[in-house]
Amino acid sequence: MGGTMRLGLRPTVFQSNTEEAVIRKLYGDEPQVLERHRHRYEINPELVEGIEAAGLKFVGKDEAGERMEIFELDNHPFFVATQYHPEYISKVLDPSRPFLGLVAAAGGILDDVLKQDLKKTSHDF
């Protein structure tokens, strides 16, 4: 067990064409984020082009640009998925950015949240 697992804190790099991505805005338009991983499953790279043609956009990849880490669905209030585990750093009064976006979208205030300064200096592990 664990031989093929991606474990620990790893960077996810936002792609150059993702300036309008909601999840990137939630992370304060940073070029990359550090999040904790614990998984062994990946998206088959041969399927990426077809998946994106259907409307899912891979907005974050690993530092080598080979593994898909974050995707969003175009023209949806908040349809975001991450390969990492944002719940590992989420706190009630300081939610991880994906959870902040989900709750804000459900409450109808996502646009208001995105207008705030969302830059964060570091995670408090």
Kindly describe this structure:
Helix content is 21%, strand content 26%. It has 125 residues and is of the alpha+beta class. Mean pLDDT is 87; it is low at 121-125.
Task: Give a short summary of the structure.
The protein has 125 residues and is of the alpha+beta class.
Secondary structure: elements and pairs:
Layout: E1 6-14, H1 22-26, E2 32-39, H2 48-53, E3 56-62, E4 68-73, E5 80-82, H3 97-106, H4 110-114
Let me know the largest β-sheet: 5 strands, antiparallel
Rounded mean pLDDT score: 87
Order of helices and strands: EHEHEEEHH
Identify low-pLDDT runs.
121-125
> How many DSSP-defined strands?
5
- Terminal Cα separation, in Å? 25 Å
Count of DSSP-assigned helices: 4
